[in-house]
Structure formats: structure tokens, C-alpha cells
Fold each of these.
Amino acid sequence: MQPELHTHSDLYSKSFPNFNRPKVIGYIGLENLMYARNIGNKNVHFDLNLHLDKAKRKPTNLDVKLNDLLQFLLEHERRLNFSLERNLSNARIFCYRGLMTCVACTPYENKDPWKIAVILFKGNIFLCARDTEEKIYQKCHMTEQDKKFTSWGYKFEQYMLSESPDAEPVPDVPVDETKEFSLVFTTNLNQHTIVYGAEMDGIRCDKAPVTTVPTGENPDRIVQYLSDKEFVELKTNRHIQFAKQETNFRRFKTKKWWCQSFLADIDTIVCGFRDDNGIVEELKVYPIRELAKISERFWKPNVCFNFLDTFFTYVKRCLARKIKHKYGENALKNVHSLPMTSLLLEWRPGMPVQVSECYDHESDPILFKDFLENYGKSYEIPS
């Protein structure tokens, strides 16, 4: 039986763990890169319902797997030149930023459970969020108002972002919500090396002149361009009128916003405060340091990242127990040659994290066939 992982915030109140500044190593959807010029605290009038009926919406029942990240790894394997790790303790972790944000917020979460598939393949650990029963129910029972709230967020981005640094936004057209631009980062959290994709809103270009991305150049030149730029995160929120709304904003929203931004090396969040009819009337700029400061009564960054670090350690320990039981102690020093090994981690508020060894990759494949057959062929096996 695998050990449990407890999540109470008091267990993770030590000093902030060692976390390297995230390094950009790639990009996904470069044609969708956008720019933000009008950053500042100001009054505006953005109608988020404009052309809402003609928007190209993202499917509400979308099953988010690792496909985009896996395709990136396949296409850029030789350029990235990752070493093949024999030891489980050094295994590289691949996932999306959303998963890390969800895990990091767990010590303060009191409503939404989560479920995460863990796959060990060729010495790498792949983590992928799976839908809980509650999430499936929510997707199947989304109201028109729920869908409208989601679309309002995309429309706000259209009011704020443009296709080039010297152009103005063009909100008077329907939104295509399926367009995404993502950066791929790598970093170290204590002893863990993580590679993750993060959807980005736009490059900030109000401080200094910014040139357009050098399309057609080799990937290293484009990565250098993207690494030198400051990105901004865009959010919407209902006007805060009452003390309870302010408390909820500081207790819940700021925590998630801070984790998302910190993991993507973003310093600035712009929030559009709207009324119940979808009219944004005020823009407010939040440096992420301020978010943590105004919310320190409710959550602490060190607790979030200490738990994230402990979670990654727990994943490796659970894999180690399964590998030792199935293949013996020596297999832990040759994990690159093991057959695919999988686990399922589940958590519900008020409970410790539970682990199951019965995750079935065949019925719910996280790694697609082409990736399984072709990834890792360029690895150099360490001596």
C-alpha cells in the first residue's frame, strides 16, 4: 500500500524552496502571438458581448491532454538535447502549468478535487490532469450563462491585445477562442527538473519599443526573442462592492493568479473589472508582489511551493515503490529501460492525497502512439 500525502497548510510553512527563474526553451502556436500596449489603471468601456453570438468557441467538453507539449518535444528533440536519466530521483517532469497551479493551491483548496495520471516513460515522468466526476458533471451541465462568462474572458483579451506591437486591438470582430500561444519553460524546484507548457496572453510593449517576432528564423533565434520580452497576464473580475467579495477575491482569486504568473515569470496582471452585463468599466494593474502582500492573511506563496515540491517528491516515491515491487531495487538505477509505469493520484478536500496503481493507459492514453514509437531515439545514454 502506498503512503498518503497530507495537505494541511501548517505542514508546509517553512521558508520558500529553491526555485530557479523559469527559462524559455520553446513555443507552441507562434502565429497566435499577441502584443499588449495599453497597460495602466484607467476607466474604459469594453462591451464583452460584442459579436458574442458569432464567436468561435472552444469545445466545453474538451479533454486536455499533453498532445501539444508532446508534439513539441518530438519536433524539437534534437535541439533540446535532453540527457537520458537512469535514476528515478533525476527524472525530468513534464506537465502543463495549469496542473502545477492546481497542485500548488491544494493546501488552501476547500471545494474542487483533482485527479492526476502519472506516467514513467524512458526515464521521464509525465503528469496529466484527468477529469473528476464533479468536473465531468460541470462540463455536461454548463448553462448559457456559464458559457457567456468564459467567452467574456476571451473577448476582454481581444480588447487588450493586438497582432503587432504598433497596432491597436481590433475588438469589432468575432473572437476565435481556439487560438492559443504557449511558451515552454524549464526550471528546477529544489531537486526536481520540470518542463512545462504555459498559455501566454501577450507581450507587454508599453514600456519600450518592441519589434515583431522574427518569423522564419531558426527556433533558437525565436526563443531568444521571446526570452527577452516581458509578458502580461489578463484577467476579468466582477466589480468588488462588498466586504465578502473583497475577502473572496483575496482568498481565492489572487492565490491562483499569483501561482499562474509566478510559474511563467510574469510580473504584471491587468484585471478588467466588469458589471453583471459584461461591461468592463475599469482596468487595474497588479504587480504580482502586491497580490501576495494584500492576501497574506489568507494564503502564503512559500506554503504553495513547498507543497508543490513535496508533491513531486511524493510522485517519485510512489513510482519507486511500484518499480521495486515489480522489478526489484536495481531497476531504480535503470528507469530509462523500464516498460511504461503508471499511477493515478486523487485528492479531495479534507483528505490526504490517495494513490492507485491501477491507471490504465490503454483505455485512457496520455502519450499518443507516434510519441511512444519515436521519442527518445536521439538520447545519449549516460555512462
Amino acid sequence: MYPELPVNVQKYDAAFPNFGRPTIIGYIGFENLKFAKNIYNRKVKFDLNVLIDKAIRKPDDLDVKLNDLIRFLQEHKVRLKLPCPNTLDKANFFCYRGLMTCVACTPYENKEPWKIVALLFKGNIYLCARDTEEKLHRKNNMTPEEKKFTSWGYKFEQYMLSDTPDTEPDPNVPVDETEEFSLVFRTHLNRHNILYGAEMDGIRCDQGDVPHSPTPELGAEAIVDYLTKKEFVELKTSKKIEHPRQEASFRRFKTKKWWCQSFLAGVNTLVCGVRDDAGIVKELKTYTMRDLSKMSQRYWNPNVCFNFLDAFLTYVKRCLAQEIIETHGDNALQNLQTLPLISIMLEWSPGMPVHVAGRYSNEDDPILPEWFINHFKRNDLSD
């Protein structure tokens, strides 16, 4: 029997854990980098329905898994020189920021269950969220109204972001919702080493001149250096608050997710477009991370979120260790490089502890593609 991980706020209400400021080590989709100039509080009139019928949308059945991150690791392995450890203590976690946000918010979640696959391969641990039955049903049965709400978020970004630091946004063209720019970060949470991708909205250029970005020909190091010296902004939309229950819901749920997302990417400023039911943004409100945590301290505590995230990563290692011992013996814990891929499915539902639902078949529904496994059977990440 695998152990279970308890989920309750009181257990994790302790001092904030040792979390290193995220370091940028790479990027994905550099051609889609955007810039934000006009991010101060003000009244506006942004119609989020402009050309919505011509928007280029992501496929409804899109399941990216870890594809972009895996491709990044393969393309940049020489530059990054990532270690390939032989023990779980030194293993690197690879995942997306969205998964970390989901886990960190779990102690306060009362509706959304989750499933996460943990794969141990060549001494590193890959974490990937999978759709629950409830989420899959919602995804396959989205109403036109729900799809419109999603597109409104992309359109708001188009009103706020431009292609260069010295040009204005152009909302009078259809939005391409498939365009993404992501940063790849490295950090540590207590003893856990984590490398993760995070989709980013844009670079702030409202506090002074921001030079144009380097051309790709200058190489990855020059681009990483440029990105490291810039401050990014997070963009969100939210319906106008009109009564106390909406205010409580906003502080209890939205601010928690916004704070975790931004904090994990080293973002300190968030701009919210306050919209009405018709999709018209009438006001911009800016928040710092301190604003979000302070205004919501009655409802959630950042310490609890990150202490639980730390406990979850420890739990993953503990469950993988049990799987290794049962399948390959105690000695294998000191020689992870010799092991085949090992994968388990972790599940959680509100009111329940996190538990291992069983083994996961990477062959039936591959998260680590065959080309990646075959490549790193011959070579490690640091070759």
C-alpha cells in the first residue's frame, strides 16, 4: 500500500518554505514575445467581441502534455548541462507552472479534483496533469458562451500588448490564440530542484525605455540575458463586482490562483481588465503580489500553499521510492540511471487525501514520447 498525503490547511500553516527566486534559463516561442506600455489604472472601453468570429482558436482536443518542454530540453541540453542524478534526493522535477499552481492551491480547493502523472526516467521526475472525467466532460461539452469567455481573455491581451516596445497594440486584427511565448525557469523549493515552463504575457515598458529584443541570430545566451533583465506583467480579465458575495468569491478564489501563477514566474504586477456581461472592459486595475495576498488574508495564506507544494513533491519522491524498492530492490535507489521508465498516477478529490491510483502506462498514452526515451537511453541530458 502506498502512503497518503493529508490535505488540510492547519497542517501546512507554518513559516514560508525556502523558495529560490526563479531563474530564467530559456524560452519557447520567442517570435511571440510581446510588450506592455499602458498598464496604469484608468477608464477604458475595450470591446472584447471585435473580430471574435475570425479568431484562430486552439483545437478543442489539444493535449500538449509536456511536448514543448521536452523539445526544449532536447534542443538545449548542451547549453544547460543539466545533471542526471542517481538518487531521488538529487532528482530534478520537470513540469509546467500550471501544474504547480494547481497543487499549491489544493488546500483551499473545494470543487476541482485533479490527476497528475509522475514519471521517473534517467534520474529525473516529470510531472504532467491529466484530465479528470469531470474536466474532460466539460471540455467536450463547452457551450458557445463558454468558448466566448475564453476568447475574451485573449482579446484583452491584444488590446494591451504590442510586438515591439515602441509600437501601440492593434486590436483591429483577428487574434491568433495559438501564439504563445513561454519562459523556462529553474528554482528550488526547500530540497527540491524544479525546472518548469510558464506562458508569459508581456514585458513591462512603462517605466522607461526598453530596447528591442535581440535577434535569434545572436544566440540563446544573449536572449536569456535580455529576458532576465526585464520585468514581466500578468494580464487577466474579471467581471465587475457588484455585490458582497462576488467580492468574497473574488478574494477567496481568483486572487489565490493569480498570486501563485505570478509568484512562480517572478512577476510582481498584474493588470485586471474589469468587464461587463457584454464583454466590454471599462476599467483597468493594477495589483502587486503584496496587494493580492493582503486583501485576501482572511481567505488563504501563501505559506500554506507553498508548504503543501513542498510536501507534495516530497510525497512524489516517497511513492516513487516505494515503487522502485518493490520492483527493483533497495539497491536500485542509489542507481536510478539503470532503471527503465517508472510512472505512477496520483489523484486527489476535495475532502480526501492525495493518493496513488496505480501505475500509469506511458505506452498507451505517452507523456514522454518514444523519440525522447530512445534518445536519452543513449545520451543523458548533460551530453
Amino acid sequence: MNQRTTADKWFEGSILTALILVALVMLFPFYYITAVSFTSPIEYLQKTIVIFPEKWTLDSYRYLFSNNVFIQAAGVSTFLATVGTALSLIITSAGAYALSRKRLQGRRVLLILILMTTLFNPGIIPPYLVVRDLHLINTIWALILPVLTSGWYVILMKGFFDSIPDELEEAAKIDGATDMGVWFRIILPLSLPSLAAFGLFYAVAYWNTFFSAVLYITKPDLRPLQIVLQQLLIDSSSSSSGEIANSMAGEIAIPTDTLKMAAVVIATVPILLVYPLLQKHFAKGVMVGSIKG
């Protein structure tokens, strides 16, 4: 039986201490943002830096949630994260299931074409021309349809479907199930780990939509939350941020910085809350396609 020496204990203790310090350093910025967002306006203006507020207040959050600009942006981001993620999972899983069936004609050609999309990036202009010609500019679907699925995710999920025994499909077909029935009633329930993993990836991507909104959206009421957040965070001397800052803090004595911090917290917390709900399946889902049994 191996016994740990004093040197081993000191080494493990030093490693643990170093990891704790690194974790604290990484968590401190988010803690500071959260603390400032809950700080009262008077205290924030009086202090140079706020580590622990003497008086916690929800004034910044109350005003953000009473501001039409912010509410509309939060609604757009919520729509993208929910509807976009659901559609992406449907398209990705359906495409991966079809490609995993050996009877599909032209399967190898389709796989090569999908693989090429992961190797070559068309850039900015071709996708913009496609969105423009489809008359999707200044529509919510311009933020969903161009990124509805990922070739890499399709290939990974196909590897997961390849590991499902063909006998399950054959037994369902004997019982009269159609291809859609097999996919919906058998394949999808068995694919919860992969759906949870990819659903989290899609949800984070949709919630953080920024660059595509800059390209395709000019209507104020269709701007996602990240655009409004960016306009809050840029220098208040610029015209765009000045407009947003004035609309946010115009009639009440709330410092713009506390509004910025509250907006950052609101934009970050939903994604942080999603992961614990999917953690049960996420650990299995990240290994999707890595092992074919």
C-alpha cells in the first residue's frame, strides 16, 4: 500500500492553493461587476472603487427592466436563444440521422460537401448577398437561418447515431413505424446527451449574437441584447453610446456605469443558469461521436 509522504502532501497543497488563487483572480471581475450593479448611486459616486457595497439596491435593474430599449433587446435575444436553438437542433439531428443511414443514396458526396463547409470559410460578402437576395435584411430570421446548423455538429451527431444499433430501427419498422416515427420516437429520446450538449452550444451562440446583427439589422426594435450592451459599454462621448446612455439614464440619477454593470450581469446570468440544468447530460454529450460502439 502506497503511503503519501510529507513532500507529496505539501506539493498537493501548493497546487490546490495555486488553483484557488487562480479561480479567485478569474472570478473577481465578475464579482466586481455584480457588486457595482447593486451599489446605490450615492455610494458609487462617493467611492473610487466598490468591493462590498454598504447598501445594496436594485435601482439599476429596475430601470433597465422599465426601459423599452433594453426590454426589446432582451426579448429579441430570448427569441433567438429559444426558437433558434430548437430549430437548429431539429435540423442538425434530422440531417445527422439521415446521413447515418447507409441506404441513403449519395451519402458520401453529401458528407464531403458538409465537411468542406467546415474547412473553407466563405467570408462576409457571400453570406450577406444571400441574406439580401432572400429579403431577410432587417428581419429576425436573418439572425437564425444563416447559422441554422453547423457542418461540424452534423458530423459529430452522425457519429453518435452510427453507434445506435440498426436492430432498433428494424424492429420499429416491423411494427409499422415510418422513418420520421423512428427518428422522433426512438432516435431523439436516445440522443438526449448529444441534444443537451449541442443545445447548449447553440443557445450560447444565439444569445451572444452580435456580428450578424451588425451586418443585417438596422431597425432599433430588432437589435439583440449584445448590441445594446455594446452601445452601453463604448465611450459615452460617441454619438451612438450617447443616445443609448441618455435614453437609459435620462430622468433618474443613476450613474451610467452602474447601468452598464447591471446590463452585463443580465446578459451573462441566463447562460450561467442553463448549464446546471443540462449538466446531467452535458458530460456524456461532449463525447458525442468520439466512440463508435
